Amino acid sequence: MKSTTAYSEESLTPEITLAILRDSYIQQCQYDPEAEPDMDLSFNSTIEDWRYACDLVAWKPLGRAMNEWFKVQYSDEQWHEVLEPAESKKLLGVCELISSTATRPSVIPLNIFGNRCLEAGAFVTLRAALASAGIPVDSLRPSTPLHPWVLEYWGGFSDVVGKIAPEVLPPVKIEEPRIQKFSYRLFAFGIITWLVSLFVAQEVVSLIAVTSMICGLVLILFTSRLGPQKVSFGKLETIGDVCRLISASVKSGCSA
Q1: Which residues touch 52 (CB under 8 Å, ≥6 apart)?
Q2: Which of 21, 23, 64, 102 could cross-link with 166 by S-S, CB 3.0 to 4.6 Å?
């Protein structure tokens, strides 16, 4: 149960690859204001639509980012072939290219006292995959609460689970520190007060406006270095809950 060095892998299919891309998009929409929600990504989606939905970069850096994400080594020419022209090339070509050599962690039941336990296999696979992604797992147990553990590693955690069992992890919910919310409100108050000062010839109003904007901006710059106050994934409370979700998806064939 403590192995973190290796796990079994299985080849991707175009369908699984699409599910992984969709999973990433769903999570991105929860925290990235540049992402466009309510887009239904499919094999028939154009690259232009995909870029628009996920606020993606140009074809060359996008292809290289996909190489890193899926641990593949396709050339710029190969990526150009499936990504350009963006208005006519489809997401199917991207999924077919990635799945031609890419793999993902696979969940295999673990034998425990002669019984095959898929949930235990999900934990072993998840723990090993997290470790391979550079996330510390020495203290990770099925009983480990997601919060506060996931607070620091939620991005990598979401990516790993999204590959093992795409589209089964609930959308992430990120709560900003209260002081960060206050800083935005203070800055907004300053702007509104400044607009009012244009019509009300009173120095005190202008002073309040300028002071609020400066203090708000300083706080924004300071709080931008702070991490989120809380990160949650639906009603999941422990790592064990995540493993049960993964094992259920494997049983039902949702991640296959």
Answers
A1: 36, 39
A2: 23
Give yes or no for residue 5 having a pLDDT over 60. no
DSSP string, 146-199: HHHHHHHHHHHHHHHHHHHSTT-SPPEEEE--HHHHHHHHHHHHHHHHHHHHTT
If one counts every other C-beta atom within 10 angstroms of the C-beta of residue 42, the result is 12
3 state DSSP class of 104: strand
Could you tell me how many residues make up the chain? 256
Number of neighbours of residue 205 by Cβ within 10 angstroms: 16
Which residues on neighbouring strands pair with residue 157, listed in sequence order? Answer: none
| pLDDT band of 186, cuts 50, 70, 90 | confident
Name the strand (E) or helix (H) holding 204: helix 203-223
Note the pLDDT tens digit of each residue in 150-184: 988 999 999 999 999 999 999 999 887 677 677 77
